[in-house]
Structure formats: C-alpha cells, structure tokens
Amino acid sequence: MAYRDPEVRRARDRERIARRTAARVDAGLCAKCGRTEPLPERRLCAPCNDKRNAASRTRDARLRAAGKPRRDPQKARRHRHKMRPGSRAPRAHDLRALR
Ligand SMILES: [Zn+2]
38: buried, middle or exposed (CB in 10 Å: 19+, 13-18, 0-12)? Predict the structure, then answer.
C-alpha cells in the first residue's frame, strides 16, 4: 500500500511494528524474530541478541571512525574510560568532571 505522505506511512509502520512486538512478547516469543523463546529475563533469543550486538558494534565502530559520538552517552563515557596500556583506572574526580 502506497501512502501519499511518507510521514503517515512512517507513523503507521511504527504503530504496526509496536503492535507486532507487543503480541510476540505477550505470546512469550522473541520480540525480534517471533519464532523462538527469548533468553531468560530478556526480550530477544540468543541468535537475535548476537546479531543485534554485532550490528551495534559495527555502527559504533563506524561512528567512532567518523569522529561522531555514540548513540548512548552513558556507554560512550564508559568506553572512554576503558583501560588501555599505560592508563590507570578512573578516579572519582575524573568521573565527576564528565557529568
Ligand atoms: Zn529471535
């Protein structure tokens, strides 16, 4: 079905996908593929979870290479403080300065 206004199509797609995801979660299935049970305490099954993690890492690597910030500011902050050879663990005052 073609829509004259792409904004209308996007809004209806969002509603449709939200309904589909809610139905899958209610049925106790993976929210993404809807074929298998999700991992305990999770919404996604193991293969979907792995795929999503790989996609996130690829996206973050691309953003990092382009010098753009990561999508999640909390994770970006943690990433900056990852231990590198010759570095030390962050002190409380380092973390306070970032807030
Ligand atoms: Zn799945």
Answer: buried
User: Could you read off the pLDDT of 28-75 as tens digits, one per residue?
Assistant: 999 999 999 999 999 999 999 999 999 999 998 998 899 887 777 887
Neighbours of ion ligand 1 (CB under 5 A): 30, 32-33, 45, 48
Q: Are 17 and 10 in contact (CB under 8 A)?
A: no
Task: Give the chain's radius of gyration (CA, Å).
Answer: 19
Alpha-carbon distance of 13 to 6, in angstroms, equals 10
State how far Cα 34 lies from the chain centre: 18
